[in-house]
């Protein structure tokens, strides 16, 4: 008996050990191609990306956060928070209390980033895990005193190939293993600004290059044996819309520029009045029919863009395709930053890997939903956030989900079956219980004959 107990006990321990050595922690690579407008996917050819989607999932529209700019949206993806909550409220910011400035060229002060905890920090606090970043806004800043274990200082001149080489090397060779990694690329944003999204010829060329980079990424992951076990999300921060020299809003025509400081210009201008706020507001309010002017307290709730000191007392929101300028000509042919309800501002999301279904298409999610989904995949406890995990359940193999058309179909189908069955039962019952028509027993002539004579 003693021997049996010992054998059973040692068997249990071996079983547990066996399990843990085989179940490696899940890994996730998050890729952003800056400014990849959702409908590029419908309007251009992407053979490599379409292959990736065929074996994975596609979310056709990701509703991003207002303002639809690069730094704020990249930080929302990795924190699940609206801009007013994570504190990166624009690419250009000013904090009235500390008098600090932030810009895309001067973004290294942790002060700006510390209002939230990005997923690479949370991932690294888990035992035996590390994070890596081949550039992503904020990854070269010690946020809460933590950078990813492996990261590159931001430089737009570093090639995609070098970034990809670094990230795959870190994914393979690190100890503790890299379980969360980011990869960032500046296109098609840069070309979208330069040519405008309506320049089909140039955008065709640029988007073909992007597709080739995706082909390169998948090929490299396959060669290195990472493809089957690594979860890969390819997404973006925002879309792009066409601007025009005929759609300019010149603030200098409406107000003396010495009466305010301009913290951010277009298409959402952040205005810090130097004189009476109401006076500045009243002048700007009538400046253009193609621009909404809001006092901070009146910013529509749907923008989730109000409760932060870094949001200035007045903001101006240009209509789609309009550019706010100061006595200057059109600075760029394409831009983003506009209202996040515009579909031209939305990016897409595609994902592949053991956590995701194969060949599944989904209409839309919010960009803040990506964070709780990534935490789920990595087995991390998410920080409080504005995302909804339920919105992404249909993408994941380990979740039970049912979408609305399917649910309606199932309910209608079930009702039809029930009705048919009930009908059948009623018919059967009627048949069984119908009394036989009464008929007098026909006596034959010899029936009167006694049976026994
Ligand atoms: Zn961007």
Commentary on this structure:
The chain crosses the membrane at residues 407-427. InterPro entries: Alkaline_phosphatase_core_sf, Phosphodiest/P_Trfase. This is Bis(5'-adenosyl)-triphosphatase ENPP4. It is found in: Cell membrane. Its main location: membrane. This protein has 453 residues and is of the alpha/beta class. It folds into 2 domains: 27-81 and 116-241 and 339-395, Alkaline Phosphatase, subunit A; 248-334, Gyrase A, domain 2 (2-Layer Sandwich). The chain is built from 13 helices and 18 strands. The strands form 5 sheets. It has an 8-stranded mixed sheet, with helices on both faces. A 4-stranded antiparallel sheet has the order 11-12-14-13, with helices on one face. Strands 3-4 form a two-stranded antiparallel sheet. Helix 3 crosses helix 10 (200-223) and helix 8 (160-173) runs parallel beside helix 10 (200-223). The site of zinc ion has 6 residues, from loops.
**CATH third-tier fold name of the largest domain:** Alkaline Phosphatase, subunit A
**What hetero molecules are bound to the protein chains?**
zinc ion
The number of E-state strands comes to 18
Shape: globular
Total helices: the number is: 13
Poorly predicted regions are 1-21, 445-453
Name of the level-1 CATH class of the largest domain: Alpha Beta
What gyration radius follows from the Cα positions, in whole Å? 31 Å
In what range is the share of β-strand residues?
Answer: 15-25%
CATH architecture of the largest domain: 3-Layer(aba) Sandwich
